[in-house]
Amino acid sequence: MRIIVDGMGGDNAPGEIVKGCLQAAALAPHEIVIVGDETAVRKELDKHSGGGSISVIHASQTIENDEAPVKAVRTKKDSSIVKGLNMVKEKEADLFISAGNSGAIMAGSMFILGRIPGIDRPAIAATFPILSRGAALLADSGANTDCKPRNLLEFATMGSIYAEKVLELPSPRVGLINVGVEASKGPALQKAAYELLELSPSLNFIGNVEAREVPQGCCDVAVCDGFTGNVFLKTMEGMGSAVMRTVKHSLTSDAFSKMGAFLLMGKLRKMKALFDYAEYGGAPILGVRGAVVKMHGSSDARAVKCAILKGIPYAENKVVQMIEDSVLEMEALERSE
Amino acid sequence: MRIIVDGMGGDNAPGEIVKGCLQAAALAPHEIVIVGDETAVRKELDKHSGGGSISVIHASQTIENDEAPVKAVRTKKDSSIVKGLNMVKEKEADLFISAGNSGAIMAGSMFILGRIPGIDRPAIAATFPILSRGAALLADSGANTDCKPRNLLEFATMGSIYAEKVLELPSPRVGLINVGVEASKGPALQKAAYELLELSPSLNFIGNVEAREVPQGCCDVAVCDGFTGNVFLKTMEGMGSAVMRTVKHSLTSDAFSKMGAFLLMGKLRKMKALFDYAEYGGAPILGVRGAVVKMHGSSDARAVKCAILKGIPYAENKVVQMIEDSVLEMEALERSE
Asked: Which of A95, A149, A201, B235 could cross-link with A193 by S-S, CB 3.0 to 4.6 Å?
């Protein structure tokens, strides 16, 4: 398998990207290629022993975070994002990973790889931590702010396949994020989506779920429009970091507490890791004809390593092909009704 | 001032309601009246010394949590919710507080008190904790799942007045919850609402705010549709309780940690209080012609006490009258454009 990593994307590129690639290369027997400014990337590679195990493909352009995505993808043909996606399209690579401009990764995936036929709206499916055990998937987490009911069915179907094949959650429980558990609850969008989800024979739909229960693991795939997904994910992040900051502040505010905190150091460190989104391996773009993973802009080496390792089963298990097949089934069913 | 408390609403009625009323009565020089089943309420009052300071008005009916709100309000004329709201309407009371059926409190407020002229959609404005300092307001927190842009302007205007007069936040900073800070971001609803909020001369509008920053206090009044508000608030609750459970579990999992936790006991208790929503005094129904506060269904005595104490400045500062005036100003401005 050949994995292309964008060497120029994110706040910590190329240094942390290169480090993460080296860490992943030490663990996984796959070819890792960094696409980006060759001089800059090689300079980082040279700082590490084993830097020779990673090859570099030169890209003379970089899409910055503040660029308009569609225009950037259309005009910067030699950017790391466009080049990386083209390699996936041409089957020269199995997976593309980037911490760069989210809009450009999304737009590029749609223009270059194309949507899977029958998928109206590809989704960004974020993995988020369930504190008691592992992780769950949120689809859509922000790509599509205005949605139709059918889009939510697509998110659920694609998310279920990813959760089963990559997160290793068998027969994943699909929940629709809503204001109450009764089928009659919520805005027009959620009411109509509920009916579609309930009728789908391929989904393990457990009904509406309240946002309070989702961080505690009440479902494996939480389905919502991208606006709601963004609010949910960012509230989790904001609340998690606010709480941990309060804990830390509280536990070091006097000598007596500091002594207690000292005894708990290992535990507190473990806890911090639980809330550390870097552990959760980036977000796949589902619904396009290729395996693409978007990482958080602030990804460090560990996040890059995790995204690469999580990306392997995503590409290896033919998730994209399975989504294509499931859409065909969905459409056959709709015709027969 | 005369405060009416619903003795029958919520999971812990009437026991905790009565206790909370007594605690508030000991602190505030106002008349507190409990409306509900007289025998049941008196039985609870008799358990406490000073029970005589609270008067009781009998209501022969109770609206249960699973009843359809509109029908319940229309048919149960002698219920505690309908009686309490009628007393506010007839100026026999200044404030009504209930932990009962949210839909019935909302529907009853609209039918019995009526909407403030010019307000299309009254809102439930929840107060939520900012860990570093005090609290902020979320409007709407769940009453209106499908909204128009003008509704969000109403929520902002009403929320600002409440935040200033009750939460004592001068010139409150109003933020629109959105997926990014740029004016052009988000769904159609948020884009249109942004324009209205920006044009309003009476608001201290600081622009879009991301859900990540809201729990950390980036604004004093967070504006959104009720679906988004519900997701935001419940994610905060769910994440807060998940984190605290993890902290507790982590800190008591072995003898060494237990010793550390023992040293930190006071701090941990203080922290728990920070996340305890009971501290934050219920949610006013804004946009109806009277002061009404909805408490969480699981409110205990302390939550009841807080809701009563927070309700006093709400009724005393003529917030309802100020909202009426501000709507007139808003409409005069619209006509002059």
From this structure: A149
User: Which amino acid would we find at residue A245?
Assistant: R
Per cent of chain B over pLDDT 70 is: 96
Residue spans of alpha helices (H) in chain A: 15-27, 38-45, 69-75, 80-89, 102-108, 149-165, 188-199, 226-251, 255-263, 265-274, 301-316, 319-336
CA-CA distance, A310 to A323, in Å (whole number)? 18
Q: B-chain residues within 8 Å CB-CB of A245?
A: 131
Res A276 pLDDT > 70: no
pTM: 0.90
Q: Please tell me which of the candidates A188, A216, A260 has its beta carbon nearest to residue B146.
A: A188
Per-residue CA distances from B68 to A180, A183, A314 (Å): 14, 15, 46
Contact criterion met (CB < 8 Å) for B234 and A142 = no
Question: Which candidate from A177, A227, A236 shows the least CB-CB separation from B187?
Answer: A227
State the number of CA atoms in the 13 A half-sphere of A263 facing the CB.
20
Helices B15-27 and B301-316: angle between axes, nearest 10 degrees: 50
Do the chains contact at B250 and A270, CB–CB below 8 Å? Answer: yes
Decide if B267 and A257 are in contact by the 8 Å CB cutoff. yes
Tell me how many residue pairs between chain A and chain B have CB atoms under 8 A apart: 159
Residue B72: which residues within 8 A CB-CB, separation 6 or more?
A: B63, B64, B79, B101, B104
Interface predicted TM-score (ipTM)? 0.88
pLDDT bracket for residue A249 (50, 70, 90): confident
For chain A, what is the mean pLDDT? 91
d(CA A307, nearest CA chain B) in Å = 22
Distance from CA of A230 to the nearest CA of B (A): 6
| Average pLDDT estimate for B100-121 | 96
Instruction: Judge: B211–A246 Cβ closer than 8 Å, yes or no.
Output: no
Inter-chain contact A263–B260, Cβ cutoff 8 Å? yes
